[in-house]
Amino acid sequence: MKVLSVASEAVPLIKTGGLADVVGALPAALAGHGADMTTLLPGYPSVLKALGRVRAVHSWTSLLGVPARLLSGKLDGYPLLVLDAPALYARDGAPYADAAGQDWGDNWQRFSALGRAAADIAGGAMTVRGKPVRFDIVHAHDWQAAMAPAYLRFAPFGGDAGRVPSIVTIHNMAFQGWFGPEVFPRLGLPGEAWSIDGVEYHGGLGMLKAGLACADAVTTVSPTYAREIRSAAFGMGLEGLIVARGRAVSGILNGIDAATWNPAKDGALAARYDARKLDRRTANKRALEAEFGLDADDGPLFIVVTRLTWQKGMDVLLEALDHLVGLGGRLALLGSGDSAIERALHEAASRHPGRIGVRIGYDEALSHRMQGGGDAILVPSRFEPCGLTQLYGLAYGCVPVVARTGGLADTVIDANPAALAAGVATGVQFDGVHYDAFSAALTRTVDLYGRADQWRAVQKNAMKCDFSWKASGQAYADLYRALTA
Ligand code: ADP
Is the CB of residue 335 below 6 angstroms from any atom belonging to ligand 1? Predict the structure, then answer.
């Protein structure tokens, strides 16, 4: 089975969030399940640079009005196709916005072109030794790739011959790709696509909406988030469509890359360890305290690794910092994003010298050192489609303290009395992202930390969890098979 995975990000080439981790991991996750996955990415400068020697395998004189080439390369040893369209992608910096943080005005064109290219490729536009290469299914990720199902449905390559089925995966409903109606005539879609069953959304072009309406199946990255987006609080306007798609919508948890996130083999750590050698974490804790300028002591060291946004509940974290310090806790935080939150964090750090350390920026290696040396990771997200940092926390015995929502609800077992008695607790959950619930969870965590035997048991349970791609790879492969049967 040949699968074309289409996305705007994939590790190690281009990443702004968890989407990239997932897209980068999928080819290997599917390889053992009879699915050969090729990944299609836009030709951002960083992607082209990493490609090295390339081979052009197809070209368009006009792809939504611009010339483009398709380059062939490798993504961690798996097939990669890169859409080289300099007019759309040859821009430095972040993939979606200019240096001032303003979204590029032509994002509709940049990512509709990606969808158009995916539909062409899947339908056999690319030839090898004169023979068209076809794909059995297209797997599109998030709004940037979500036009692919619309092109497959309304304007397939070569006319009507043998429609290619498609899946859209929602990694975050908050980002939808909404544009004005004036762009529609430039999409190369027939008039019938401008409808409630097509790409039209509230009088404009809705790119994620188009994918949700046109794909044969819709997945999101946890079963709980798949349920939550049926409601207005989480559906962000698309809840009606999600409900209407009924059983076509399902949730498949993300896995983590066990080769990159394994404390027994992690070269970023001062001391490597496994569940039988948890004492070795102390060396990592000391190193982390030194790195963040924190007091060295045996009290709980909390960590946070995140985008600094409202979604991630950073305002509530800020409110609860005095409480956290009052409990004898310390915090090491790594993040970037909202500048007002950054300023408030710096201000809290200067109010609590030695107790709160803040690092603004993006630093992959530091995030590993934090998971390997912190006692507990705080994830107070208002919504969380799956979340990866709590999974890394579980793997590293850095106990997750999470809001009971989305993938956080599905992956952490709260240390309530029943779970502790049964020996299955892996973390702490709380309901509702507000000061009272979060500060109570901090208190409960510090109490648990004080009961050293129980804390150790929770760490060990956490490290036993298998959130590798094994089960999820199987689930995607089963879905591909059902849609291509
Ligand atoms: P989201 O995709 O919503 O940002 P996830 O938890 O799904 O949240 O994924 C975030 C990913 O980005 C994780 O791999 C996390 O470790 C990483 N990450 C987030 N912020 C930083 C940062 N400042 N430095 C290093 N890694 C980060």
Answer: yes
